[in-house]
Design brief:
By secondary structure, this protein is an alpha/beta fold. It contains nine helices and six strands. The radius of gyration is 15 Å and the shape is globular.
């Protein structure tokens, strides 16, 4: 177990799309927390991957999520896929390599948000762990059509070796110290979440 390191981190946001977003457990929480997670990544220069699963059938990324993604200045890439898990698409590993090349200081740390927890998110997380990545799953940025699907998927991902976390912990681990130059901006973003709850 280790803290997140800005130089090895990458955020992956999985399939927060139209029709599914209308059916998941606590969509407002997921949308808000994921938006803040991406904005925090932007503050620290952490790259972001956004995926869509068969958008012709499921719809496009939720407009609030897509709006935050489009406004990011940090390195970012978009991947449209048909495999449920991101790793089932050969391009995904190349996207990770392009955004965050392997670091000799340790394995890549992938911070995960998305839906559905028991399908695309779990398949991605388990395969990333199998390939040697360290995976941090933000529980409030992950959901499914029903709390039981979500809860049991989070349990299974944790059993597989994923670290359950939240976007606030991620931010404090990236900052490490109150004197970090981005700390005031971090606090401002986190306060937005407290006001929205």
């Amino acid at each position: 177990m280790e803290l997140l390191d800005v130089s090895r981190s990458l955020v992956t946001v999985i399939d927060l799309q139209g029709k599914l977003m209308e059916m998941i457990h606590r969509p407002k929480l997921v949308i808000g927390a994921t938006g803040r997670l991406m904005r925090l990544a932007d503050l620290f220069g952490v790259p972001v991957v956004l995926t869509e699963q068969y958008p012709r059938g499921l719809g496009l990324t939720h407009p609030e999520v897509r709006g935050v993604y489009d406004g990011l200045k940090t390195p970012k890439l978009f991947l449209e896929k048909t495999s449920f898990g991101c790793c089932g698409d050969d391009r995904f590993e190349r996207v990770l390599d392009e955004l965050r090349p392997a670091d000799t200081a340790g394995p890549r740390q992938v911070v995960v948000a998305g839906i559905e927890a028991h399908v695309c998110v779990m398949a991605t997380v388990v395969e990333l762990i199998r390939r040697g990545h360290v995976v941090h799953v933000c529980w409030e940025c992950v959901s499914s059509r029903g709390e039981e699907y979500r809860r049991h998927a989070l349990e299974r991902m944790q059993q597989a070796g994923a670290i359950l976390t939240n976007h606030e912990s991620v931010a404090f681990e990236w900052a490490r110290h109150k004197d970090h130059p981005q700390f005031k901006a971090v606090n401002a973003i986190l306060r937005e979440g407290q006001l929205a709850e």
